[in-house]
TrEMBL record:
TM region positions: 29-46, 58-76, 83-101, 107-130, 137-154, 189-210, 241-262, 274-300, 320-339
Keyword vocabulary terms for this entry: Cell inner membrane, Cell membrane, Membrane, Sugar transport, Transmembrane, Transmembrane helix, Transport
InterPro entries: ABC_transp_permease (IPR001851)
Domain of life where this protein originates: Bacteria
Protein name (database record): Xylose transport system permease protein XylH
Primary localisation category: membrane
């Protein structure tokens, strides 16, 4: 049970500890150590990993996961899951593209429609969860299958194919691509705009979680929703807001998918939801809620980016990548429980 009073008392206890003790009690400490180890490993065994120009590629891979790992982590801290997050990204990209292409509209009309739809899907997930009392695992699993079917069915109906049509010759595409699919160069490093969005979302998410009343609400509803409600926490608004935040980030990621590649495959995104959850767990989130870190989730995404490319750079068999993810998930869960118990004892 975690109430607002208990959170405040915990914060006071943490602030009074020595710096090292505070550092070791942070949820993201395990992911930070893992990131350093993985970085040093691939620096030693993979020569291309040491090429400064490849930093942008590694960060890009991490950012495509990190943009969604941030809201997924917030949801898990709030005691909920979103198994529809991966296909929601695809839905966002497809809806904007198909609307603009079918009706010959300015691309920005499709972008705005996609935003409304993505946030509405998040709101629906939160509303149905609270209305029925079903676990979010089941609610969002249902949404996952609904969106997966709609993505494929509507795309086939509109284009006769399994992918959206190209829209790069339509009005507004260039300006939208500059917002969602551009890149900047810093010396030899090319940074996709998703890296900037990922960093911004991490900073905003961490600030909200650790420095605002909303952050206390998220920890409280994840620890014990009934106790939180009893002390005046707006449980319904907090949970619905978290799902809507996930919808917003799905829209942002979907817009990048569309304007980076000009077309969206209707089967894209299936399985990505587990990657987002793994990144959050590696970053310190517990499956039971009430504990976790946004910064840790982003470090988890960075681990994903480094490992995915590091395996290729080292010339290892990429078939072992999924095995690595499973091992990391189990180890992270064990480390997170250990860190939390040590923090509680102090």
């Amino acid at each position: 049970m975690t109430t607002i009073t208990e959170l405040a008392a915990r914060d006071d206890r943490v602030a009074s500890r020595p710096f090292l003790a505070r550092l070791l009690s942070r949820p993201e400490v395990g992911s930070l150590v893992a990131a350093v180890v993985i970085f040093l490993l691939f620096m030693a065994v993979a020569e291309p990993f040491r090429n400064v120009a490849n930093i942008g590629t590694i960060l890009y891979g991490a950012s495509t996961i990190g943009i969604m790992a941030v809201p997924v982590a917030l949801l898990m801290i709030g005691g909920e899951f979103d198994l529809s997050a991966g296909v929601a990204v695809t839905t966002a990209g497809l809806s904007g593209s198909l609307l603009a292409w079918n009706f010959g509209l300015n691309v920005w009309v499709g972008v705005l429609f996609s935003l409304v739809l993505a946030v509405a899907i998040g709101a629906f997930n939160g509303w149905l969860l609270l209305r029925t009392g079903l676990p979010s695992f089941l609610v969002t699993l249902g949404t996952f299958f609904i969106l997966q079917g709609v993505n494929l069915g509507v795309t086939r109906l509109a284009t006769g194919n399994v992918a959206s049509a190209g829209i790069n010759d339509m009005s507004g595409f260039s300006s939208a691509q500059a917002v969602f699919g551009s890149e900047v160069s810093i010396g030899p490093v090319n940074l996709k705009i998703t890296v900037l969005y990922w960093i911004l979302l991490t900073v905003v998410g961490a600030y909200v979680l650790l420095r605002t009343r909303i952050g206390n609400w998220i920890f409280a509803v994840g620890g014990d929703a009934a106790a939180a409600r009893a002390v005046g926490v707006p449980v319904r608004a907090t949970k619905v807001g978290l799902f809507m935040a996930a919808g917003f980030c799905a829209w942002l990621s979907g817009m990048h998918l569309l304007f980076q590649f000009n077309t969206v495959q209707s089967g894209e995104g299936v399985g990505k939801e587990f990657i987002f959850i793994i990144a959050a767990v590696i970053g310190g989130c517990l499956l039971t809620g009430g504990y976790g870190s946004v910064v840790g989730a982003s470090i988890g995404a960075l681990i994903f980016g480094m490992t995915q490319l590091g395996i290729n750079y080292a010339g290892w068999n990429p078939d072992w990548f999924r095995t690595f993810l499973g091992v990391m998930l189990l180890l992270a869960t064990i480390v997170n429980l250990y860190v939390k118990r040590r923090a509680d004892l102090r």
